[in-house]
Amino acid sequence: MAFSERVSRLKSSLIREILAAAQRPQVMSFAGGLPAEVMLPELDWQAMPLNIGQYGMSEGEPQLRELFAAEARTLGVACEASQVLVVSGSQQTLDLAAKLYIDQGTQVLLEGPTYLAALQIFQLFGADCLTVELEADGPNLATLRRSLERQRPAFIYLIPTFQNPSAVRYSEAKRGAVAALLDEFGVTLIEDEPYRELTFDGSSARPIVSRLRAASWIYTGTVSKTLLPGLRVGYLIASPDLFPHLLKLKQSADLHTNRVGQWQAMQWIGSEKYQQHLATLRNFYRERRDGFQAALERHFSELADWQMPEGGLFFWLTLKQPLDTRTLLARALEQDVAFMPGEPFFSEPDRHHGHLRLNFSHIDPARLDEGLKRLAAVIRQAQLAQAA
Amino acid sequence: MAFSERVSRLKSSLIREILAAAQRPQVMSFAGGLPAEVMLPELDWQAMPLNIGQYGMSEGEPQLRELFAAEARTLGVACEASQVLVVSGSQQTLDLAAKLYIDQGTQVLLEGPTYLAALQIFQLFGADCLTVELEADGPNLATLRRSLERQRPAFIYLIPTFQNPSAVRYSEAKRGAVAALLDEFGVTLIEDEPYRELTFDGSSARPIVSRLRAASWIYTGTVSKTLLPGLRVGYLIASPDLFPHLLKLKQSADLHTNRVGQWQAMQWIGSEKYQQHLATLRNFYRERRDGFQAALERHFSELADWQMPEGGLFFWLTLKQPLDTRTLLARALEQDVAFMPGEPFFSEPDRHHGHLRLNFSHIDPARLDEGLKRLAAVIRQAQLAQAA
Asked: Which stretches are annotated as coiled coil (chains A, B) (predicted)?
């Protein structure tokens, strides 16, 4: 069997396997990044024209591109609709970016920790994944400068707002400093913002791409966290030098994004109805976050440290007594509890033991306390066994 | 700017540029492969459950996988739902197959001519595209055997039923012979059948994958030609040795296919309503084919040779006096006529002058005669200029 060399780097995805296990209804899952089902808005399809069923443009629906461009401009991103590419969920942005930049051995720079599926797809294409360490307010700037001086990454991939998995939101100062460094070294920025709208303290910081003066950039977002992931509608906005290549890569990947989902997204983005939905969603998730924080304090205050997230969908726990959290997973699932071990979020998993990512948006509040109690018990037991 | 090596092979797509030009309403287009808009069925969304908006399985909706498997079994393909992967249109099957098999320099074997977008994506991944010549009833078997003896293609890609662009349908004998050769040499078959259901003489031949005894295989289809391309719902069915790799590649490409389109497809596939729709569609396209044949006889009988297609969406013309048909395109568009030059359907375009692919499904019958008349005039003028 002669597969491509790439297939030898095709890892089994922990996410997929855990999501599969977590399908059992009795499982209390802190594992995924799923929206709460009660917050999925009702859809109205009455007005959808019949010819939306026809083939469409690879770029996406013109009206939807205008809406995404207008939304980005309100964030300070100077762009036109001609720079917007509608993609099949923002995961596809990573596939297109990997195709655009990565050969076997190409260096790319990522946060440590970073989004697991980004790490996987960049590695699949053969990237050498370098890491810049995350602090509470963004990357360590000295490390970033040193990395840019010594290495030649094809791009840097950042999730500056309510990062998955760490929930870190970059400070204003670090956003500016990162932009200045990328301009200085001429390194392309891929800025991924799926969680921007899920802010609990009302504050919003301008994207880093809006602060660049020279470097090329791709800014990507999605309706999956605010509207409906099942539509598979996301977007990327790219600097004009990159857009034509990304468009051709999109066309060869799947011709164009499904138009039914695009039409539905058009009914929401930029509308009053969407703003109201977002306000409701933020309140709902803030309450879930608060409930989760209280339950964590009851069961984890002796076991772990964490920052309360100001947005997004996750708590990121650091165990006071580190251990390989991947070894906890089977035992947790035996107790009908699912969570995401921290190790796979690092390009060198074995050097980063002792973190857990816990999703707070999806779990039924009535089962939250029991779920965290069981998870804490699994950890205590493992630590006792390790000490013995 | 340090792009990947692959980007240097990223061609401007003639299809996309022509489709863009053909958007002007006054253009009489024979270029695309678009369904007739009047044949797009009306959609009913009333019964769609709200939680279809949630994230789904990378494999696709379980019920839809069952339906596609059942449909394939009626064609003689022994398979289970566990071998079915729902993809974002069958174009995505080509992306996944390229990732699975192609490194820089990997040999793959294609029909000459073959589907343009397949050629492009295999070349994008660095494939060395070898060709087996098509005859009226399928590939030249002696050439195929010689190619398999002398070369080691990672796979062979075939479109045996109403091929795009040539409209060729393989005979029973050649289907059996091809299967036997692939088993003998252990070469994987990718069989692409978007046009299978669009048969005008009622006959149907078993897929080649159903005749294999040993070789690995991927069978792929779509609802784009029979239902709605805008849904972007296709499927692949793979031999069990390939499926797990394809599933992981699908997940890294876009997590999963949009569930709204999948739900809509589930309302049709395997239903009485779908059978009725297909019958209507076949009658409608047969009439268009007949009208096109008559108009071609009026305007092209001195200019070109062709076989009347027994299915699919295209006529494939061979000019009696060959010329590079790409040079005709600008002049045709000036006359508000669009068509597909034949050269890009070959891996060595400059060795295959003098073919045109004409789509008969999309053009308004009231404008058909005028469109073909203008196209014939453009060709005559070019031939006169060439002779002068």
From this structure: none
Q: Tell me how far apart the terminal alpha carbons of chain A are, to the nearest angstrom.
A: 47
Q: What is the pLDDT of residue A204?
A: 77
> Which residue of A50, A52, A92 is in closest CB contact with B253?
A92
CATH 3.10.20.740 fits A5-40+274-387, yes or no: no
Within 10 A of A386 (CB to CB), how many other CB atoms are there? 12
What is the rounded distance in angstroms from the CA atom of residue B181 to the CA atom of residue B141?
9
ipTM computed for the complex: 0.95
Gap between the Cα atoms of B132 and B124, Å rounded? 20
Side-chain-facing half-sphere of A162: CA atoms under 13 Å: 24
Question: Using CA atoms, how far apart are residues B126 and A207, in angstroms rounded to an integer?
Answer: 36
The 8-class DSSP code of residue A71 comes to H
User: What is the average pLDDT score of chain A?
Assistant: 94
Long-range contacts of B299-305 (CB under 8 A, 24+ apart): B299/B369, B299/B372, B299/B373, B299/B375, B299/B376, B300/B372, B300/B376, B303/B376, B303/B379, B303/B380, B304/B356
Chain B residue numbers touching A251 (CB-CB < 8 A):
13, 16, 117
Pair of tokens at residue A61: 């629906």
Q: What is the pLDDT of residue B15?
A: 58
Q: Are strands A28-29 and A337-338 parallel, antiparallel or unpaired?
A: parallel
Q: Which of residues 215-274 of B touch A (CB under 8 A)?
A: 216, 224, 227-233, 241, 245, 248-249, 251-261, 264
Dihedral angle of Cα B371, B374, B379, B380, to the nearest 10 degrees: 140
Distance CA A187, CA A182 (A): 5
| Chain B residues in contact with A214 (beta carbon < 8 A) | none
Question: How far are the Cα atoms of A300, A315, A319 from residue A373, in angstroms, in the given order?
Answer: 8, 16, 15
Q: What's the pLDDT at B293?
A: 98
Residue ranges of chain B with per-residue pLDDT less than 70: 1, 12-19, 22
In angstroms, rounded to a whole number, what is the distance separating the alpha carbons of residues A127 and A105? 5
Q: A56, B230 in Cβ contact below 8 A?
A: yes
Helix, strand, coil: what percent of chain B each, to 5?
Answer: 45, 15, 40
What residues of chain A lie within 8 A of the CB of B120, using their CB? 252
Residue with tokens 């003066």: A213
List chain A residues with CB under 8 Å of B235: none
Q: Choose among B137, B134, B167: nearest CA to B309.
A: B167
Q: Give the C-alpha separation, A259 to B8, whole Å.
A: 30
Q: Contact at 8 Å (CB) between B344 and B307?
A: no
Fold entry, domain B55-271 = Aspartate Aminotransferase; domain 2 (3.40.640)
Task: List pLDDT tens digits, range A225-275.
Answer: 999 999 999 999 999 999 999 999 999 999 999 999 999 999 999 999 999
Measured distance CA(B252)–CA(A118) in Å, rounded = 9
Q: Domain residues of chain B, as ranges?
A: 5-39+274-387, 55-271
- Cβ atoms of B136 and B168 closer than 8 Å: yes
Distance CA B58, CA B169 (A): 33
Is the pLDDT confidence value at A18 over 70? Answer: no
Residue A320 — pLDDT band, cuts 50, 70, 90?
A: very high
- Residue A320 bridge partners (DSSP): none
Span B289-302, pLDDT tens digits: 999 999 999 999 99
Alpha carbons A228 and A268: distance in angstroms, whole number = 11
CA dihedral B50, B53, B59, B63 (to 10 degrees): 20
Report how many Cβ contacts below 8 Å link chain A to chain B: 214
Distance CA B72, CA B189 (A): 16
CATH domain B5-39+274-387 topology: Aspartate Aminotransferase, domain 1 (3.90.1150)
